[in-house]
Amino acid sequence: MKFGIIGASGKVGSATALLLAKEPFMKDLVLVGRSVNKLEGLKMDLYDAIAGARSDANISVTSDNNLKPLEDCELVIITAGVPRAEGMSRLELAKINAKIVGKYAKEISKITDTKLFIITNPVDVITYKALIDSNFSREQVFGLGTHLDSLRFKVEIAKFFNVHIDEVRTRILGEHGDTMVPLLSATSIGGIPIYKFNNFKDLPIDEIIEDVKNKGEKIIELKGGSEFGPASAIVNVVRAMVNNERRILTLSAYVDGEFGIKDLCIGVPVKVGKEGILEIVEIDLNEDERKLFLKSAETLKKYCMEVKNL
Hints:
- With 310 residues, this protein is α/β, with parallel strands linked by helices.
- The protein folds into two domains: 2-143, NAD(P)-binding Rossmann-like Domain (Rossmann fold, 3-Layer(aba) Sandwich); 147-307, L-2-Hydroxyisocaproate Dehydrogenase, Chain A, domain 2 (Alpha-Beta Complex), CATH 3.90.110.10.
- Helix content is 42%, strand content 21%.
- It contains eight helices and 14 strands.
- The chain has helices at residues 11-21, 36-50, 90-111, 123-134, 147-161, 205-223, 228-242, 287-307, and strands at residues 2-6, 28-33, 58-63, 75-78, 116-118, 141-143, 168-169, 172-173, 181-182, 188-189, 192-193, 247-256, 262-273, 276-280.
- The strands form four sheets. The protein has a six-stranded parallel beta sheet with strand order 3-2-1-4-5-6. A three-stranded antiparallel beta sheet has the order 7-10-11, covered by helices on one side.
- β8 (172-173) and β9 form a beta hairpin.
- The two termini are 33 Å apart.
């Protein structure tokens, strides 16, 4: 299969490139960025890394001024954009990155009919912009959304109840940001609803959610950037798509009436398969969760409308 990564020389882009290059399904990987020299160095490093991994991936590089090599890609992953600087508002960041990613989306749509996987933050707003500017179907354009947040939440639940992480099933809906919504009503351990456990009453849910919200910033503060977690989450989604696993993951997707909201991208449960988003899985929320989810949607709607015509 042929995949492309725009922003490949960045932390998340390069870590994703390494993990993808090792996958058995990867045949052609196109790395796109501003500095071809840096990408050439990355390509050499990647070939060294996969030499013992039984991978025969062909890796090529191209400048972001020449997206023609992305022709016939099954999927283009977009990690390009600027990080949020000190003092920068979320809306300011959204407007800057919406212009960057929107331009790529338009150019890609002229070259090939593909799928776009958006990683650039604020991911829900940027996914919406990529969808609008590419004019692709909503099945073709999706963002990482709260998938990584859901994985982080899963880790915290497993730690608190002292169980193997694979026993935990949970997810976070809504914005990848301050208004994310944990679904305790849909959380189980070993198939048993979480509220049936005796120590559920002691679960510090507010503290855990704050930790999940701030995990990215904390990692940046301590080590200068987060790449391994996001890259692993990205490849997790890609693998589900390539293998047509039809897994239910929480990604940023365009909603058009589902959950009572329209015309925005937000983290919702989706069925992931070979064609991208096969279905938005509409689930029952309890009253508190629904109120929080609608509040999250209202917040994102404002941002989406701000960037729509940039």
